[in-house]
Specification:
By secondary structure, the protein is an alpha/beta fold. The chain is built from twelve helices and 18 strands. Strands 3, 5, 6, 9, 10, 17 and 18 form a seven-stranded mixed sheet that branches.
């Protein structure tokens, strides 16, 4: 089969031809219909500091996808050939303390699709049966391929008390944009979206932002305080991983407010712990992935309710052969979600 992989410890990806994976015990083989590009994939593509410490080439990357089950391994009981599925990319051991206390998303032996095991930038991918989330036939595969990042936004946004609070979201990538929509329908008093890219700020308005700020042109922290009678935002979601944005998130939050950190920095970040955390008595929570599988049930309920519309998120449709172009587009910021078909 054809796939795109990190072959050597250097920037870029290489198209390869490799054997089709064979499903093992309680695994299913999925023919990829649509896969989408994530910020993590871009970290790996650039080969930044984070990627250098987490990826061991060779590795087929990619982890957001939807497809059809074409083969099942021994003892698979809940999935069958022909099922359409999306994938939970976090593969938990099921036996450690975290797994057995309802926190499988932070499993002590966690493996991540496209990071620790081969991923979805390929014709086929094998995943554990329990990671294959069934989707109705009427749900378009491209929509199903972005359910996982929507789950990220659900986990991040619902980790704070949104209702009745002024909310600021730093970073309007696809997960940040999803968070805009989620906080809007969750009763936020106002939703301010901050980014340096006008394309994404326009998308934020489409997703329901009350106000947008281009922090390259205006002082976002000063405006947030001015808009909240000097208090600052009650909840700040940092979704970019940018060092300046992380610092601004803590400066923008009000005393006693909550900062949710989701964006993945490419290197270590320094914080003013005294002024921005301790003396503010800020509540801080790091968020990774989704709560398995609590977030998936919430995503399903939100989509069925019709309150969250994902269509504006998907801005580009490309072939997997155009992966280099897709990565360059992600780097430019002039896109929402890019979906790829093999």
């Amino acid at each position: 089969m054809k796939a795109f992989a990190k072959i050597r410890p250097e920037p870029g990806l290489k198209e390869i031809t490799t054997d089709q994976p064979q499903p093992g015990y309680r695994e299913v083989l999925v023919k990829v219909k649509v896969t989408s590009v994530c910020g993590t994939d871009y970290h790996i593509y650039k080969w930044d500091e984070w990627a250098q410490t987490h990826i061991r080439p060779p590795r087929i990357i990619g982890h957001e996808f939807a497809g059809e089950v074409v083969e099942v391994g021994p003892d698979v009981t809940t999935r069958k050939v022909g099922d359409m599925v999306a994938a939970e990319s976090h593969i938990a051991c099921g036996m450690c303390y975290q797994c057995r206390t309802g926190n499988a998303h932070i499993c002590e032996k966690l493996r991540i699709l496209g990071v620790d095991v081969d991923g979805s930038f390929a014709d086929y991918v094998k995943i554990p049966e329990q990671n294959a989330w069934p989707i109705p036939r009427e749900v378009p595969p491209e929509t199903a391929s972005i359910l996982e990042p929507l789950g990220n936004a659900v986990h991040a946004a619902f980790a704070a008390d949104i209702a009745g609070n002024d909310v600021t979201i730093f970073g309007c990538g696809p997960v940040g944009l999803s968070a805009v929509a989620l906080t809007k329908v969750s009763g936020a008093l106002s939703v301010t979206a901050v980014d340096i890219n006008e394309y994404r700020l326009k998308l934020a308005t489409k997703m329901g932002a009350s106000k947008t700020i281009n922090s390259k042109e205006r002082d976002a922290v000063a405006e947030i305080h001015a808009d909240t009678e000097g208090r600052g935002a009650g909840v700040v979601l940092e979704m970019s991983g940018n060092e300046v944005a992380i610092s601004n998130a803590f400066r923008a939050v009000r005393n006693g407010g909550t900062v949710i950190l989701f964006g993945l920095p490419s290197k270590e970040v320094k914080l003013n712990v005294g002024d921005d955390l301790i003396f503010k008595e800020a509540h801080v929570r790091g968020i990774v992935g989704r709560e398995i599988f609590k977030s998936w049930y919430k995503v399903e309920a939100l989509l069925k309710s019709g309150k969250v519309d994902l269509r504006p998120l998907i801005t580009h449709r490309m072939s997997l052969n155009q992966l280099d172009d897709a990565m360059k587009l992600v780097g430019s910021g002039d896109c929402g979600k890019i979906v790829l078909t093999p």
